[in-house]
Amino acid sequence: MNLLKAPEGARLALMGNEAIARGLVEAGVSVVSGYPGTPSSEVIATLHEFGAGSEIYVEWAVNERVAFEIAYGASIGGVRAAVTMKAPGASVALDPIVSSAYGGVEGGLMVLVADDPGPHTTQTEQDDRWLGFLAKLPVLSPSSPQEAKDIVVASFDLSEEVKLPVILRTTTRVNHTVGDVVLGPIRRIKRVPQIQKDVPRFVRAGMLWNLERHRWLNNQLSVVEEVFDRVSPVRNSVEGSSRLCVVTEGAAYNYVAEVLREVGGDVRVVKLVLLYPPPKKFLSEALDGCERILVVEELDPYLELVVRYTLSELGRNAAVYGKSSKHVPMEGELSTKIVRKALLSALLTDKASQEASETSGPSQLKIAARPPPMCPGCPHRNMYVALLMGISRAGFRRGEVPVFGDIGCYALGVQPPLEAIWTEHSMGASISMAMGLKVAGYEKPVVAVIGDSTFFHAGIQPLIEAVHKQVDILVVIADNSIVAMTGHQSTPAWSTVESGRKTKPIDIESIVKAVGVNHLEAVDPYDIDSTVKAFERLLRKPGVKVLISKHPCALVEARHRGVEVRYGVVEDRCTGCLACIRVTGCPAIYFDGSKARIDGEDCLGCGLCARFCPYGAIEVVSSG
To answer: Phi then psi for 192, rounded to 5 degrees?
Structure first.
């Protein structure tokens, strides 16, 4: 069944992101933009997969800032729009997000920001609930796929009534959880985009105008709680009437509910959906009579601050426990074990509940850590091997040549046995940071590695800066023709994107030439010897050098073209020296205790292992 076209009342098992996609359709959106980033990527991927023939504009943008501004431009034209991103993407888009609060919207605008407690796939455990306080925009938080869908629909009604963008803040356990979702009606909202010239509203160059718009913004925020309660079917809620109270929201609510089902106990649960502005009227009533309050939340003590401030304003005395009292950890995801311990120590202190908890909780399995490897046949593995060899052949030790990394699957080059990159900071930072070290006076070569989609996202500007200032660095663009790590999305180099739209492909080599670098070479990293020689040459040259390491993602190439050759181990030649594993770290190779083996189904035929086997024990064993 096509979840985007299924009728009202249908019950489907949907991932949170799929439910959000359905909510966008139910809300009658016209424009959806975004940049890939786990755990948010499946929203736009779902709209692409099931939205064939739809009139909705759904496309990936070159970065989150551009994505937001596309959606914002549509919304001030009166149509409903949405933008999706993960937590660090909100930082990229922060400038226009904050400014949009002063201009406001006409058509509803929803900003999905997906945080990643854990973190599972993100460089920081950023808590974007604070965006409400910073940007002065409403923030909503669902706890399940059903709530996510319903809140998406309500967010557009809220946005249009208060004339502000609305932030939907989710976390991985909501985005990727699968649950039953009852579908609602699909609104057929057909609006002809129109825009009225209103300079004081939309031009931020006037300081008096900005002051006036700030007053307008604060006034709009004062009515958000009332409007939200009126338009949203999912509201702030209270379960129970005990004087022992838990305040929670989002995915954390599910842990609380599960633990209370296990251990019992008379506890009042106060669940928030509207996180900003803090719902003062609701909290005043919901916390009335609470003597002990445990705040259960992930990441920062955001709700704890809200609760303490609210109690202070109301002049009420209650003991508040949470992160500041160390009942709830400041880092990482919650678990039933953590929440059970917090509930027992802060609220359910009687011995019977303690004993019940110790016998009723699920066993905790210890699972060995498994850092993510590069895929078999990954062209980035070949590139890193060639880079490290090129450094040596150019007359330098590995420890003398810093390699600044960037955000993408090529960052997995930090893992053994390659251990190639020294840093991974933020999108595009590899070039800027390499430049910074060099202008500080570092005498040896400095290398920056950046992927093709990251180069489009945030690498062009720092490359311009390096060329303009004529800084002696080597920039390696690892071009695998796709946004690989977040699920194989399109880049600006594609001629046809996921929606079927025909586009004008943007050529990276042409951009680099236009910027005016001193030296430019393009190589196929599967030709390992030629790539080593290219690195050796460029490391010895002065000025801004760029090497484009270009080969398609091996997984995508295998799906589209099949596997041309596969390799295997000739048993009587293998000595078990492990050179193939120690050099490449390819996960298709394993050791059985005496000999190396290659999993024939995993091998994608790059041949790197054969290149480094000193005994010629690895050969082509099949074609296709």
So the answer is: -85, 120
- Whole-number percent of the chain with pLDDT over 70: 97
* Residue 290 and residue 259 share a domain: yes
103 and 139 housed in the same domain: yes
Cβ atoms of 536 and 390 within 8 Å: the answer is yes
In terms of DSSP bridges, do strands 589-591 and 244-249 run parallel, antiparallel, or are they unpaired?
Answer: unpaired
Domain presence at residue 242: yes
Instruction: Measure the CA–CA gap between 615 and 243, rounded to whole angstroms.
Output: 75
Residues 51 and 135 in one domain: yes
The verdict on residue 369 lying in a domain is no
**How many structural domains compose the chain?**
4
- pLDDT tens for each residue of 311-342: 999 999 999 999 999 999 999 999 999 999 99
Domain with 99, as residue range(s), is 11-231
pLDDT in tens, 393-413: 999 999 999 999 999 999 999
Supply 316's token pair.
């009420």
The rounded mean pLDDT for the chain is 95
Euclidean distance between CA atoms 12 and 19, whole angstroms: 9
Determine, yes or no, domain membership for 4. no
CB 164 within 8 A of CB 105: yes
Are 225 and 280 part of one and the same domain?
Answer: no
Global pTM reads 0.93
What is residue 59's DSSP assignment? Answer: E
Counting Cβ atoms within 10 Å, is residue 445 exposed (0-12), middle (13-18) or buried (19+)? buried
Residues 398 and 524 in one domain: yes
Beta strands in 483-585 (DSSP E): 519-523, 545-550, 565-569
Half-sphere exposure (CA, 13 Å, Cβ side) for 188? 1
Element (H, E) at 462: helix 460-468
Provide the percentage of residues in the chain whose pLDDT is more than 90.
92
pLDDT band at 352 (very low <50, low <70, confident <90, very high): very low
Distance from chain centroid for Cα 108? 24
Both 585 and 537 in one domain: the answer is no
Residue 480 lies in a domain: yes
Within a 10 A sphere around the Cβ of 327, how many other Cβ atoms?
Answer: 20
d(CA 152, CA 102): 22
Please indicate, yes or no, whether residues 390 and 307 belong to a single structural domain of this protein: no
Asked if residue 585 and residue 477 are part of one domain, the reply reads no
With 0-12 / 13-18 / 19 or more C-beta atoms within 10 angstroms meaning exposed / middle / buried, residue 483 is buried
- Indicate the pLDDT class of residue 351, thresholds 50, 70 and 90: very low
Tokens representing 347 are: 């609220």
Half-sphere exposure of 271 (CA within 13 A, CB side): 21
* E strands present in 367-465: 403-405, 423-424, 447-451
pLDDT digits (tens, 9 = 90+) for 251-308: 999 999 999 999 988 999 999 999 999 999 999 999 999 999 999 999 999 999 999 9
